[in-house]
Each structure stands twice: as C-alpha cells, then as structure tokens.
Write a structure and sequence with these properties.
3 helices; Helix Hairpins; 95 residues
Length: 95
C-alpha cells in the first residue's frame, strides 16, 4: 500500500527509474581500450541511445561515454596514420 506521504522502497519501480545505475567496475576506462574495442562499444552506445527508454541521467551518462569513446577512436586512428607516415617517410596530414 503506497500512500501519498510514503516514500517508495528500494525495490519500487518508481525509485529504480530515478536512481542511476552504479558505475560498472568491470568496464575499463576508454583510454585502456583498443581501437576495435572502443569502436564496438561506441556502436553499442549508439544502439542503446537510439532504442530509447532510458532515463535522462542514463542517456546523458551514455552520451558522455560515447563522446569519450569517439575521442579514443580518433586518437587511435591519428596515431596509426602518424606511424604509417613515419614508416613511409611521408608527412602526416594535419586533421
């Protein structure tokens, strides 16, 4: 029985909907991911955001993770381009 003055319990769907999930301790920070891992996780983030149904807090958290993953992907690609340019003795393009 839920009264107007009663707070929802921890098992209540109302409280669960507004309580952000804890940070996953198993998920490595993007800086530790390879290009392929970051790219795959970024694709998953995009799928989850496009699917909708997330709270605003969860959506923002995912968006921020996606931005970090996109930056890591770009850094990895830039690093690979620089390495190839050095190997081929060709000046790297400014991006």
């Amino acid at each position: 029985m839920t009264g107007a003055g009663r707070l929802p319990s921890a098992d209540s769907p109302t409280l669960a909907a507004v309580t952000p999930p804890p940070e996953d301790p198993v998920t490595p920070p993007p800086e530790d991911l390879s290009y392929e891992q970051a790219r795959d996780e970024l694709a998953d983030v995009v799928r989850r955001l496009e699917a909708g149904g997330l709270s605003l807090a969860d959506s923002l958290s995912l968006w921020e993770r996606g931005e970090r993953l996109a930056d890591i992907c770009q850094q990895r690609l830039d690093g690979a381009r620089d390495r190839l340019a050095a190997l081929l003795d060709v000046p790297a393009e400014e991006g």
